[in-house]
Design goal:
alpha+beta; two-stranded antiparallel ribbon; 2 helices; about 15% helix; elongated
Length: about 160
């Protein structure tokens, strides 16, 4: 869930099997909603506050190098950028959390130009699950986008 909305194409449920005489559907999928941790929500809310629009979410097979990832897959949340970041195609966000902190991985995808190819820039940082409130995440994201975009003449 992001901002109270279910993520398109992300369906999670629990399959239960119960032996009941004459039951219509004993093995159906019962949907569940997965909400972000408060630290994840703070970063997602910052994206929305800055005008980024949710595009898509999917599960990727593989491993994000340098993270605490233990499972053989991760979720990528993709956003369309607001107008002031016209040189961007999209920004992708992944969270990899354990019980104490999380790795936040951002990927900025540049649109291909008339004389240039598209390109990607990655950034990752750690956030404590209990001490994320001291950061202005919208300001942090603005600084990162400006820093990366100006270095590469994207905006």
């Amino acid at each position: 869930m992001i901002d109270g909305q279910a993520l398109r194409a992300m369906h999670i449920g629990v399959t239960t099997e119960l032996e009941i005489a004459r039951a219509v559907d004993s093995g159906d999928l019962d949907p569940i909603n997965v909400h972000p941790l408060p630290a994840q929500k703070a970063i997602l809310d910052a994206f929305i506050q800055l005008g980024f629009r949710f595009k898509n979410a999917d599960m990727e097979r593989g491993h994000i190098r340098g993270t605490r990832q233990k499972l053989p897959f991760y979720q990528e949340i993709e956003f369309f950028p607001p107008q002031q970041y016209r040189g961007l195609n999209q920004v992708e966000l992944s969270f990899v959390a354990d019980e104490r902190e999380m790795d936040v991985v951002l990927e900025m995808d540049k649109k291909p130009g008339l004389f240039s190819e598209g390109s990607d820039t990655f950034r990752s940082f750690k956030v404590g699950l209990n001490d994320y409130q001291g950061t202005d995440w919208a300001a942090y994201l603005i600084q990162w986008l400006s820093e990366v975009g100006s270095k590469r003449n994207w905006f």
